[in-house]
């Protein structure tokens, strides 16, 4: 097996260290150490894996010990050999239907043999280095398969929740459901209801105590709480039965028709491989969202991941365990718990082994109805509304629907086959020949896509993107008019990972040869290839002629349309021309819709007039998204003060009472000139318009000087200087001014409006959101996890 393990590519930026022959290694002998973050993460994953492994084994009809064996082997073998360091493998809900069908057809020992053969097939695929070919499967098919499996699991486990026994198929379970409802067991229903209630309510506990308690996984709390309640009340229910390990059934020789066994091996291999590889890609996305972690954790090696999963399935099947794949729930918990290496995954496997040997009396107190409720909830969650909206937006809802219905009514392999056939039929309507090329020009890597970009081109796109070394400047040119979900997800995930590792990515539009960043670098120009907005103006030398323009690297002389001969007028006309040529064709239909329907923004964004703050860039917003008010110092005059300018108050009233915005954000920024002017101003002097306006910032000065109020911090650190402290304090003070406005106070009382504080550090290009705690005011970095919290 070692002969086909993928070799690690040399990093051109890495400096190799050489040492004289026979000299001792630097720093003395290396010691094996486990980071504290890995230990805590492994405990969190273990607490989730233990009840889920037992529940999945129950749902498949396998011996309950098989779930513990698979969880331990997934942590130790796949964790050590896999190519995704932070992915956690084990018995997955996505394999439940496949495994249950195999056990009913061939028995448990043959199912274990099929798992071993599937592992061998995965090893062969890993040696052939075809892992990225699995990504050609449209995400609509994968999500449809998982949704169909989720429906099958939920309907089957519902019978156990009601105190009965599930049938062999979804149609049979649905036909038997009325009779089961008429003869439900109250004890089983009570325990199941308590389990579901704890699962639902535990993540929503309020307050500081709730934040502490939520660190304990809801799955563990639900099963432990239901088991404790059943024991205290004395309910007589079927419970977990773990026979002696000496009687544990191991794999036997496969028995059955050859074609049926081959189809079973292929089905298991397909489901295990696709789920694990997509999980590894998702891990890279999660890692890229954690600052500092991408430099410590390597990007997933998909061929090595396939080899590791194959080895784990061979071991698990041989030891009488369930099939193994990457598990999204445990992997997400591992990353969010702070894991930094594969040691957390392996240590969680060790903890499962310890629990399986020493905690048998405790595990046997768990009612089967509680485990069934837990697995039913997992099955329901597999039908994701987010996935449905995504495939609908990418015009692949028919692929999703056909796959889901096929899996529910016919089986996993048949449903996936129908989904693939539907996806091919849909692609035939869109496809033209797609060419993807990669070349390097003057240190910048160009990936050019000619034609439509669909899931069939994803393997070629992925290969081209992975030819780009870490940290390189990259331009991706898309000439086609269509990109499906699979290609979009591949491109976006790679872009996030590449930028997190220090590289830069620029994605151009449809027009061949037209770069989004204009102009190209010339003598004295400070523009860079990664400038992500159109018509960025260069800082040219003073000797440069104002009438000279650089478009796409072409030096050309143009007349001055303004007649002034000034560079500013020429730049304005040049910018308008670039908009009409490149951007207007792309946004014309959207602006026409907004012109017909009127503006309906959801947010009022109040920020400084500083030219370095580009609101659409910071918030990734477009036409109609934000109602923006800008002024010097992002100030909100308190109502009732004579200001000579009611524009801010009028904008607030219009946004809240007419536009019905749902939130107002006050955004300050680093190096604010208004705050500097406030700090340096002296009493007296001429009352210029600027000084009269800045008096609305004096309450912020008073707040900063008040020792009874805590100073704000920026991501846990103190402000660098008085200017930064005043910038932070000003955001808090202007929010108080907002609350004093009648329209805002009324909307806050009705619960239809939220206020947010934000701080943008210009030098770091980092956004911070305001959080008011008992310990003071904190501005924390905005992370992708905030969107799913």
Give an account of the 3D structure.
- The radius of gyration is 30 Å and the shape is globular.
- A seven-stranded mixed beta sheet has the order 10-9-11-13-14-15-12. The protein has a four-stranded mixed beta sheet with strand order 3-4-5-6, with helices on one face.
- The two termini are 42 Å apart.
- Residues 5-30, 511-566 and 784-789 have low confidence and may be disordered.
- The protein has 29 helices and 15 strands.
- With 789 residues, it is an alpha/beta fold.
Write the layout of secondary structure elements.
Blueprint: H1 36-60, H2 64-81, E1 89-90, H3 96-106, H4 108-127, H5 139-161, H6 170-182, H7 186-201, H8 207-213, H9 218-233, H10 258-288, H11 302-318, E2 325-326, H12 328-336, H13 343-358, H14 360-363, H15 368-381, H16 385-393, H17 397-409, H18 412-428, E3 435-441, E4 444-450, H19 458-465, E5 473-478, H20 485-500, E6 504-507, E7 548-551, E8 554-557, H21 567-597, E9 603-608, H22 615-619, E10 626-631, H23 647-658, E11 663-669, H24 673-680, H25 689-694, H26 698-705, E12 713-714, H27 722-739, H28 742-750, E13 754-761, E14 766-773, E15 776-781, H29 785-788
Parallel strand pairs: 4-5, 5-6, 9-10, 9-11, 11-13, 12-15
Antiparallel strand pairs: 1-2, 3-4, 7-8, 13-14, 14-15
Helix pairs in contact: 1-2, 1-3, 1-9, 1-12, 1-13, 1-15, 2-11, 2-13, 3-4, 4-10, 4-11, 5-6, 5-15, 5-17, 5-18, 7-9, 7-15, 10-11, 10-12, 10-20, 17-18, 19-20, 23-28, 26-27
């Amino acid at each position: 097996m070692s002969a086909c393990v993928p070799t690690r590519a040399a990093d051109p930026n890495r400096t190799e260290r050489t040492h004289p022959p026979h000299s001792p290694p630097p720093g003395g002998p290396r010691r094996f150490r486990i980071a504290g973050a890995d230990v805590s993460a492994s405990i969190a994953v273990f607490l989730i894996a233990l009840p889920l492994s037992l529940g999945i084994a129950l749902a498949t009809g396998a011996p309950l010990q098989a779930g513990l064996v698979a969880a331990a082997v997934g942590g130790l073998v796949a964790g050590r050999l896999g190519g995704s360091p932070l992915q956690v493998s084990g018995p997955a809900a996505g394999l439940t239907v496949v495994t249950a069908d195999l056990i009913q057809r061939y028995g448990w020992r043959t199912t274990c043999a099929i798992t071993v053969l599937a592992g061998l097939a995965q090893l062969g695929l890993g040696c052939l280095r075809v892992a990225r070919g699995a990504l050609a499967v449209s995400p609509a098919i994968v999500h449809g398969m998982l949704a169909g499996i989720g429906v099958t699991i939920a309907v089957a486990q519902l019978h156990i929740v009601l105190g009965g026994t599930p049938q062999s198929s979804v149609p049979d379970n649905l036909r038997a459901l009325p009779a089961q409802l008429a003869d439900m067991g109250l004890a089983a229903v009570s325990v199941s209801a308590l389990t579901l209630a704890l699962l639902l309510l535990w993540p929503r506990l309020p307050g500081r105590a709730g934040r502490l308690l939520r660190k304990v996984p809801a799955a563990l709390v639900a099963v432990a709480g239901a088991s404790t309640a059943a024991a205290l009340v004395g309910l007589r229910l079927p419970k977990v039965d773990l026979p002696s390990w000496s009687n544990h059934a191991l794999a036997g020789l496969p028995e059955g028709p050859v074609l049926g066994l081959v189809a079973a091996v292929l089905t298991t291999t397909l489901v295990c491989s696709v789920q694990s590889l997509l999980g590894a890609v998702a891990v890279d996305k999660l890692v890229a969202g954690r600052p500092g972690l991408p430099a410590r954790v390597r990007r997933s090696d998909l061929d090595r991941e396939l080899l590791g999963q194959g080895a784990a399935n061979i071991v698990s099947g041989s030891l009488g365990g369930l099939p193994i794949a990457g598990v999204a729930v445990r992997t997400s918990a591992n990353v969010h718990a702070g894991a930094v290496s594969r040691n957390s995954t392996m240590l969680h496997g060790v903890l499962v082994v310890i629990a399986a040997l020493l905690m048998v009396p405790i595990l046997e107190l768990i009612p089967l109805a509680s485990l069934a409720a837990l697995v039913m909830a997992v099955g329901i969650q597999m039908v994701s509304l987010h996935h449905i909206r995504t495939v609908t937006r990418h015009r692949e809802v028919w692929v999703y629907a056909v796959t889901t219905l096929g899996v529910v009514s016919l089986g996993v392999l048949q449903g996936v086959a129908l989904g693939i056939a539907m996806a091919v039929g849909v692609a035939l309507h869109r496809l033209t020949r797609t060419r993807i090329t990669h070349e390097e020009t003057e240190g910048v890597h160009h990936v050019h896509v000619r034609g439509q970009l669909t899931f069939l081109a994803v393997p070629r796109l992925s290969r081209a993107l992975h030819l780009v070394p870490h940290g390189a400047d990259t331009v991706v040119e898309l000439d086609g008019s269509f990109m499906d979900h699979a290609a979009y997800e591949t491109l976006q995930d790679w872009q996030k990972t590449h930028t997190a590792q220090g590289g830069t990515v620029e994605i151009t539009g449809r027009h061949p040869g037209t770069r989004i960043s204009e102009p190209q670098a010339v003598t004295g120009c400070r523009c860079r290839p990664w400038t992500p907005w159109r018509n960025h103006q260069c800082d040219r030398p003073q000797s440069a002629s104002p009438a000279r323009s650089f478009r796409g690297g072409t030096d050309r002389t143009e007349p001055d349309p303004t007649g002034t001969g000034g560079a500013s007028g020429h730049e304005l006309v040049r910018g308008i021309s670039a908009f009409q040529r490149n951007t207007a064709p792309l946004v014309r239909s959207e602006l026409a819709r907004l012109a017909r329907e009127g503006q309906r923004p959801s947010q009022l964004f109040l920020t400084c007039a500083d030219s370095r703050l580009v609101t659409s860039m910071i918030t990734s917003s477009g036409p109609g998204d934000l109602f923006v008010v800008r002024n010097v110092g992002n100030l909100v005059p308190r109502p009732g003060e004579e200001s000579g300018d009611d524009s801010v108050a009028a904008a607030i009233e219009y946004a809240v009472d007419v536009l019905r915005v749902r939130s107002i954000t006050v955004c300050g920024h680093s190096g604010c000139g208004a705050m500097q002017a406030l700090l340096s101003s002296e009493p007296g002097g001429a009352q210029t318009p600027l000084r009269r306006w800045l008096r609305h910032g004096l309450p912020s000065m008073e707040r900063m000087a008040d020792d009874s109020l805590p100073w704000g911090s920026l991501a846990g650190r103190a402000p660098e200087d008085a200017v930064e402290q005043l910038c932070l304090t000003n955001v808090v003070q202007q929010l108080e001014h907002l609350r004093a406005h009648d329209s805002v106070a009324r909307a806050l009382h009705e619960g239809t409006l939220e206020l947010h504080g934000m701080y943008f550090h210009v030098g770091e290009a980092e956004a911070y959101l305001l959080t008011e705690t008992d310990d003071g005011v904190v501005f924390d970095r905005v992370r992708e996890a905030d969107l799913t919290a």
